[in-house]
């Protein structure tokens, strides 16, 4: 009950903030014009974002291989892209559920499939924290030392979670729960262990955040002039806003939370109307890229099954 109330409070507060920002800056937003070069930038941003989601699907196969579950890359990238739009359904878990079921049908251990979809957002969160921390070193802000210490401690905790000793403990717990609720054990259900730190998937998620951040910056370029000195600021703000959209409950796909956070972080450095427009266009570009990814994966699966 408390969790449901918290979700509604977050959603209501986010919508109120966005509505007020939109109302106060409506005239400035209406005055923005996108020229031919701007539309080209938006098209490129859509392609880069689609590439980022495809890259994330490939990273998922790396995570499964780290869990000693070798899987065909193309097939699982298709699964990833087709389930990705499920994040916008209420609950924000249906894309994970779809991947677990699809992996299980492909003879992947249920425990490994479950752990892989738990590890993926954690690796993404760690990557976003790394980008935000590195970016903050190049951005002059009023952030105090306590905030930086909190970020570093949070990153340290997240990175420690990926240590094989901790993960293998989690694997054993999942295996016990599954075998306790089942009277039979198949070959794919045999317990497994992680033998090494998932460094490669973590570096891959840094690439994913980089691609998503490039798409975000291209949207800004399409709407307004951006100095090269402002690129670290945009990367940092994007990473932090994307991270909050990932972890805050009650926001399917980070909808609303990402936009509100990006506006709050960037409105003192860019015209507020430009920031609101850029975050809105970026959300549309993200949904379009995810829809195109799902459609292309479905088409590729049907044509080259």
TrEMBL record:
Keywords: Cell membrane, Membrane, Transmembrane, Transmembrane helix. Pfam families: LPG_synthase_TM (PF03706). PANTHER family: UPF0104 MEMBRANE PROTEIN MJ1595. This is Uncharacterized protein. InterPro entries: L-PG_synthase/AglD (IPR022791). It is a multi-pass membrane protein. GO terms for cellular component: plasma membrane. The chain crosses the membrane at residues 39-63, 117-139, 151-174, 202-223. It is found in: Cell membrane.
């Amino acid at each position: 009950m408390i969790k449901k109330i918290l979700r509604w409070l977050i959603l209501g507060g986010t919508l109120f903030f966005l509505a007020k920002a939109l109302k106060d800056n409506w005239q400035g937003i209406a005055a923005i014009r996108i020229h031919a070069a701007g539309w080209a930038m938006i098209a490129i941003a859509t392609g880069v974002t689609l590439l980022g989601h495809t890259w994330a699907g490939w990273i998922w196969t790396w995570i499964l291989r780290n869990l000693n579950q070798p899987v065909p890359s193309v097939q699982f990238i298709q699964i990833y892209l087709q389930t990705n739009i499920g994040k916008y359904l209420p609950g924000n878990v249906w894309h994970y559920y779809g991947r677990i079921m699809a992996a299980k049908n492909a003879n992947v251990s249920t425990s490994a499939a479950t752990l892989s979809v738990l590890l993926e957002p954690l690796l993404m969160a760690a990557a976003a924290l790394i980008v935000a921390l590195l970016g903050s070193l190049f951005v002059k802000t009023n952030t105090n030392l306590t905030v930086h210490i909190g970020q570093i401690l949070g990153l340290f905790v997240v990175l420690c979670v990926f240590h094989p000793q901790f993960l293998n403990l989690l694997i054993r717990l999942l295996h016990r729960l599954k075998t306790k609720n089942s009277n039979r054990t198949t070959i794919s259900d045999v317990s497994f262990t992680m033998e090494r730190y998932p460094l490669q998937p973590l570096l891959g998620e840094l690439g994913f955040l980089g691609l998503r951040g490039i798409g975000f910056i291209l949207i800004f370029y399409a709407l307004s002039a951006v100095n090269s000195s402002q690129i670290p600021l945009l990367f940092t703000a994007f990473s932090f806003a994307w991270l909050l959209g990932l972890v805050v409950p009650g926001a399917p796909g980070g909808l609303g939370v990402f936009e509100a956070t990006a506006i709050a972080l960037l409105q003192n450095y860019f015209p507020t109307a430009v920031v609101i427009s850029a975050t809105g266009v970026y959300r549309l570009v993200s949904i379009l890229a995810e829809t195109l990814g799902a459609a292309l994966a479905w088409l590729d699966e049907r044509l080259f099954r």
